Write the structure tokens for this entry.
Amino acid sequence: FDLSPLAQNAAELEEQEDRKRLKEKLKVALESESLGASQGTERSARADPDRAQEDWLEYLFGICRPDRRNGKQGSRLIHPNSRFVQGLMFLSGVSLLYTAVVVPAQIFLWDFSDPCNMFPTLVFDVAIDSFFLIEVACQFVIGTFDSTETYCDDIRFIVARYLTAVSGFWFDCFTSVPWAYMDIAVYQACERRVGTINPASYERILRIVKIVRMLKIVRLLKCVKVVEAIEDYAVVYVGSPLFKIMRLIIVAIFSIHLFACIFYRVKEVSAASKDDVAAFYASKNVDNENISYKYLVCFYYVITTFTTVGYGDIYAMTDGERVYCIFLFLCAASLFGTIIAQVNEIAAHLTTKKKDLDEILEAYLGVHPRLDANTMFQVRKWERFQFMIGYEHQQHKTILERTLPESLKLSIAKKIENNLFSKISFLVGLQVIGEIRTLFSAELMLRSKTLCFSKGSIIADSQEGARCLMVITSGQVGAELPIDSDDADKENKTENGKTLLYVFERGDSIGDAAIAGDSRWAGAFGVNVDLVARSHCSVEMIMLEDMQAILEKFEFFPIKCRVQRAKESLKSYEKQSSRGAPRPSFDTKLVFFWTLVARHISRGFDARPHLRPPTPQARPTAADAGDVALSEAEESQIKDIFLLFDTDGGGTIDMLELGFAMVALGFQPKQPKVGKGKNQVTEHMLDPIMSDGAMSLEEFTALMKGELSGRDPMEEVRAIFAVLSRADGNERHNGFITLSKLQAVCYDFEVRLSSKELRMMIRDTCAACSARAAAAAGS
């Protein structure tokens, strides 16, 4: 069978996926903050007098013009995610909370037989009812998302949808009737006409008002709609289990409150006389004139019924109360059963992980003869550690494997990765936008395998070549010199007779130089050591083949170039060594400690760029490009970016488009400066090849090659030395590294070395350099 067409189709599909990722990357580049300053300056330069008003509308209501170039959709109506809508939702929730408490008390507790007996909160109720009317009106000018989460700001579609939705306009109208307007109108009429009103007509009006007032209870249905609206916020901020528990408690309390108020009214209405009611409350040691204490008795009765306790000290005494209690028992049984089921579901969800762990631990209890107590304690501690590490890793891997937009995946990866892979040698000091490194770390995590080691286990043997990258995720790992090492230190020997150099912790990497061809596990530190677990620890292991496959993706083109340069440097070093070139010989511990300090300083530059001292830097030019050979795929990627920005098809791009293209390729240009009416890209871009203000494809490719090759490899060394030899107030020490300077740097950059080790570094380095100088003078 001829399989070449299938292979060709697979290659075409892969190329299409690369182009999709390229376009997503370009979109991120267009929205990146690195170019935001120049765009903001341009917009402000051509701003019209109404710009301040537009900014205010966008800030408060989310109303703005669409900006397709920067991915801003814009909105002609109030945006549902705007600050105004969030504030409206908050006020609606507070108002409904107030309504749920006050309305039952108004309807069933307050005595409205006298229309002049105004409820204490009536004025505030008018304000609440007015707010609900305003909220209904606002729904016609608030944008919406359709079933596919596509934003729509077409007012005709919004009005039609709001009028036809089940929980839309008619539901809001039915639950937002301003009953307080009626109450205050009745009260004002009473105040004006007291003594002149016809008693017969007054009784008819009062009966109608009482019946209509009962409809206030319908407003509580709005609570369901508000709970649905705030569910996402509550789950995000307080967690799903806590939100469910809080929701159950609130529903239970308000239900009991409602039924207690109803029972209060039933007791008042169904009694044969007021004396019977007074006698009932007197038997409970409650004053018949005190509404609060009478309500407390009713609340107590309802809650004992809901919880199925039923002490029997309060019971139905009239036919009306018995009918009500039948209804109450049915509602209480349903609600209480629902609450119990929900609580059991939440508890089962929270204890699932513990049940799985208990199942593993209980398996050891069946061992015969029974294990001794000390062994059992050690086993339980190890199994608990291994289970928790594996559970967390599996959760993270499941989340990262889901199909998500790049922006969402990036946000999630940042939280999950949490700078775990930031200390890998070929990622430290990487001059690219941070998102590339985060996405690369997420890819590493997806392909990684979690390994757990008990205390004393050998994680990596110096006699074995490094075949993978290991990143410590928990615990401590000791770097130890082999027993037969010439640089063994008797004072720092461990229990197994090896010399302990350093203790690595979370985020430290092992074998990260293997991808450049260095087979030593601690090759990034310039030494060969054994790595032993100092406590129970876990590591993420990524095989070299998997790392190579990740680097082939377009997004990680700059990282691939950096690794390639490291490989070439190592080959050049090995070639010089094979030719008999003299190699400086230093104590292994000395090489390790100085490399450790240098790596900590480099990582500090990543986190705090302002600490990097200014150092002379050569600017790459087109002439530098001849030393770099790009593959066909890499040249094709560069060409794709160029063509995307060459919108007019003229074969050239301008300065601003060049900046976007650089960011899309992964390079982080410095903040652009605004000159006389036009943007200036960073100084290293202002090469003679663009002296005419435009750049061709050949010139753009040459600039890319120069950018990749023209960086001085000694620049980082000079920057680190400048930090180590920084001024300390003593002019005689300027340009030199002293013990006090080294101690201060180690403190600032969190290098965990003792004073004895720092003194050894200064002493042995000076001795080695003096010996080399003497040998050179003698020869």
The chain has 26 helices and 14 strands. The two ends are 71 Å apart (CA to CA). The chain has a mean pLDDT of 75. The first strand starts at residue 144 and ends at 145.
